[in-house]
Amino acid sequence: MSATAIPASVIGQLEAVTQALGAELARYAALTPEQRRAESRENWIAQQRYEERVATYNAAVDKVNRERGRRANEAQAAKVRAVTCGECFQIPAANGVCGC
Q: How many helices and strands in the chain, by DSSP H and E?
């Protein structure tokens, strides 16, 4: 098989897609304007519902990520507070002396 040869399976898939597209175009051409408007309206409503589901999912993911981020920040802050002087907010030197 040369580098430019297209596998038969790909050609079969492309022919199937071409036939399906032709059938869909013929079906759409046979519709009356009212049927086209109704189909368009149904598609628009379905798209809106999908976008609402996506927005709801993304909001839930953002909330989870914010919670995880806040917990991580609080854990890091607790580690820093544990070794930082509460008065001068400096980390004491090895001998225990800070900036106070």
A: 2, 0
pLDDT digits (tens, 9 = 90+) for 53-95: 999 999 999 999 999 998 999 999 898 888 888 788 788 887 7
SS3 55: helix
Say if CB 85 and CB 98 are below 8 A apart: yes
| DSSP 8-state secondary structure symbol assigned to residue 71 | H
Round to whole Å and give the CA distance between 90 and 51: 50
Distance from C-alpha of 97 to C-alpha of 85, rounded to nearest angstrom? 10
**Radius of gyration in angstroms for the set of CA atoms belonging to the chain, rounded to a whole number:** 31
The alpha carbon of residue 52 and the mean position of all alpha carbons in its chain are separated, in whole angstroms, by 13
Q: Which two tokens stand for residue 65?
A: 């990520």
Q: What is the pLDDT of residues 2-61, one digit of tens each?
A: 567 889 999 999 999 999 999 999 999 999 999 999 999 999 999 999 999 999 999 999
Instruction: Tell me which H or E stretch contains 20.
Output: helix 8-30
